[in-house]
Design brief:
- By secondary structure, this protein is of the alpha+beta class.
- The chain is 28% helix and 39% strand.
- The strands form 3 sheets. Strands 5, 6, 7, 8, 9, 10 and 11 form a 7-stranded antiparallel β-sheet that branches. The protein has a two-stranded antiparallel ribbon with strand order 1-2. Strands 3-4 form a two-stranded antiparallel ribbon.
- It is elongated, with a radius of gyration of 25 Å.
């Protein structure tokens, strides 16, 4: 009986020691980024001699964006440095600067028309019969978008755009535009991805 009691007491003491150690670790570990102390809703912890901190807290402090892809079980962290983008379609484009400016402006005009629910503006940059015109109802606001790649397909140009939207909460989508003879022929949403927070630029950040 005494042996069982002794073992029980040891287990309890060990448990309390772990709790106290963890509490002490939580109270003593500070996160400092660029000489600024960062607060976190989840306290850092020492686990197996490694300090565990929430990745979103560090990313926010560094001005990067964290995305969670539920389908592929993948966390992506981007620092908005476009030179680090992947070449999705692995194709070298031969476009003069004025041609690319025209493509970029077409997509920019569509984005404005989408946000403003301006069907006339959208029709001005799309082919007849284009079917992706928002009409009535509630649509998410486009916080930001980035052209991430483009490729030639027959006599058209396919352009992939990464879009960050907000409707009650942040969400991300990938849109593919097909542009033919100076007009948007089609636009299709091809992928969703989760967005925990998004930094448009230092000083303007959105979080869920």
């Amino acid at each position: 009986m005494k042996k069982k009691l002794y073992i029980t007491l040891v287990v309890i003491l060990c448990s309390f020691s772990s709790i106290i150690g963890l509490a002490f670790a939580k109270g003593s570990i500070k996160i400092v980024v660029n000489d600024q102390i960062i607060t976190s809703d989840v306290a850092p912890q020492m686990v197996n001699n490694r300090v565990m901190v929430p990745i979103s807290v560090i990313s926010k402090a560094l001005g990067t964006n964290v995305n969670w892809d539920q389908k592929n079980q993948t966390i992506t962290i981007n620092n908005n440095n476009r030179s680090n983008q992947n070449d999705i379609w692995n194709q070298e484009l031969e476009l003069i600067s004025s041609s690319w400016a025209g493509v970029k402006n077409l997509i920019g005009t569509y984005m404005i028309g989408f946000d403003e629910r301006d069907d006339k503006l959208i029709k001005s940059v799309t082919v007849e019969g284009f079917d992706m015109i928002p009409i009535g109802g509630m649509y998410p606001a486009i916080i930001d978008y980035t052209i991430v790649d483009a490729q030639h397909i027959e006599n058209s140009l396919k352009v992939r755009v990464r879009v960050i939207l907000s409707e009650d909460e942040l969400k991300g989508q990938i849109w593919d535009f097909v542009i033919t003879k100076g007009k948007i022929e089609s636009m299709r949403m091809v992928q969703h991805f989760d967005v925990d927070q998004y930094t448009v630029f230092p000083g303007l950040r959105y979080t869920n």
